[in-house]
What we know:
Layout: E1 26-40, E2 49-59, H1 72-83, H2 88-92, E3 98-104, E4 110-113, E5 119-128, E6 148-153, E7 162-170, E8 183-196
Antiparallel strand pairs: 1-2, 1-8, 2-3, 3-4, 4-5, 5-6, 6-7, 7-8
Amino acid sequence: MDLSKFTVPLSNGTASLPAPNAGLSLKAITLGRGTQNYTCAAGSTAAPVAVGAKADLLDATPLLPLFPSSESQQILNLLPEYLVSFDFATIENSSIPVLGHHFFDAAGVPTFDLGKDGLLKAKKIANISAPATACKGANGKGNGAVDWLALTEAPGSHGLKEVYRVETAGGKAPASCGGGAARNINVQYAAQYWFFA
């Protein structure tokens, strides 16, 4: 599939992420579906603390030829809003292939494992807020969409140089832990992940 006609969204309407480094080419477009993970200490009324994320990375490539060519980018950008409302069993039983997995390693480094296509241990270059109109969460309900990110390679990477998380849906934690017992909070989210090498 020729990915050259697709362009990673960089602007939320008021701010922009930096463009991919010159000389890199788009290697994969994936749809991430998983959870943004937070923790609350016992009795805390502060905001939950982010402790990572976990997601399956679905290969968007088989879907792209199904879209009308004049509208393919717009349709692609709408998919996370719908995907966040699908449960994991539905996704696992679909015909969309899982290209890889996103998780945080034992050292807390965001990691993207695309198997034979590469491994990206990532560090953040930049972030911007999701657009005000972004989907707040499953079925349009939730605390909002997590930021868009530009990430670059860190030591331990191979085959991949940069990834962009954009068109996010859901994933934002509640504003406060609200007191009570210590607990973990896993917030459903979906996003596009664009990989460059």
